[in-house]
Amino acid sequence: MNTTTGRSTRLRLTEIFASVQGESTRVGLPTVFVRLTGCPLRCVWCDTEYAFNGGETHGVDEIVRMVAAHGLRHVCVTGGEPLAQKGCSALLTALCDAGFDVSLETSGALDISTVDPRVARIMDLKAPGSGEEAKNRWANIDQLRRGDEVKIVLADEADYAWAREQIATHGLAGRCEVLLSPVAGQLDPAQLAEWIVRDRLPVRFQLQLHKVLWADARGK
Ligand code: SF4
Asked: Best substitution site from 12, 23, 48 to test ligand 1's pocket, by max atoms within 8 Å of Cβ?
C-alpha cells in the first residue's frame, strides 16, 4: 500500500488535546486539536514554535482512535503547517469517514486543493508584518468555497491597510468568511475593531479566545 496516501500513512504529531476552539466561526466549541509537527514558514509572531520539530509518528488509524477517545464531535487539525506532511490529506479524510466534524488550520502557503471537500479549511493570508507575505499561495483563493474561512493576523496599521486591499482585490468576502485578528500584545484590539467599523469592512473581528482563557499555555 502507498505509505503516503493510504490508511497505513504515518504522520509526525506534536500533541492531541481537548479544549475550546479559540478562533474561527467555531469559536467556543469543545474541540479535539490534532497538532502535526513541522512548518516551512517562520512568522515573526508565531506562537507555536514548539511544533516546528520533535513529535512522535503515529498511523492514521491510531490518530483517529486517539481523537475518538476524547468523545467530542469537532476536530481541528492544526500545526505547525499540517499540509507540509504528505499524509495530512489521508488523515483528514479518515477523520471525516469516522463521522467527525473536521476543520483544518493552514498557513495559505501550500496547495489546499487536495483537502477532502467535507473539511472546513481555515486558511491564513500572511500580511507583511508576519515576515512571510511572499509565501502566500494566491492560487488557493480560487479554491475557496462557502464553509471555508480566510484569517488575516495583523501586526499594525500597515497590515490592516494591506488586508483591506486584499479583501477588495480578491472579493474575499464574497467567497467565504473573512476573519481579522490582532497580533496579541502588538496591535490594540479596540483599535482594530474601530478601523473595521469605520471602513464598514465585511469581515468578522476575532480575538484568540484560548489566549484570553489560558494565555500561551501549551495544550490549551
Ligand atoms: S505558519 Fe503558523 S506555525 Fe508556521 S510559523 Fe507561521 S504562525 Fe507559526
From this structure: 48
**How far does residue 1's CA lie from ligand 1's centre (Å)?**
32
> pLDDT tens digit string along 167-219?
999 999 999 999 999 999 999 999 999 999 999 999 999 998 877 787 777 77
Write the single-letter amino acid at 37: T
Give the Å distance between the CA of 95 and the centre of ligand 1: 23
Tell me how far apart the alpha carbons of residues 64 and 72 are, in angstroms, rounded to a whole number: 12
Q: What is the rounded distance in angstroms from the CA atom of residue 98 to the CA atom of residue 100?
A: 6
pLDDT score of 2:
36
Which CATH number goes with the domain that contains 26? Answer: 3.20.20.70
Residue 78 marked ligand-binding: yes
Whether the predicted pLDDT of 132 surpasses 90: yes
Please report whether residue 4 resides in a domain.
Answer: no
Count of the separate structural domains present in the chain: 1
**Confidence category of residue 3, pLDDT binned at 50, 70, 90:** very low
Domain presence at residue 168: yes
Mutate to test the pocket of ligand 1, among 33, 37, 41 (most ligand atoms within 8 A of CB): 41
- Reading the block at residue 49, the C-alpha cell is 514554535
Atom of ligand 1 nearest to the CA of 39: 4
Range of the domain at 167: 10-214
Q: Does the residue 205 lie in any domain?
A: yes
The string of pLDDT tens digits covering residues 37-60 is 999 999 999 999 999 999 999 999
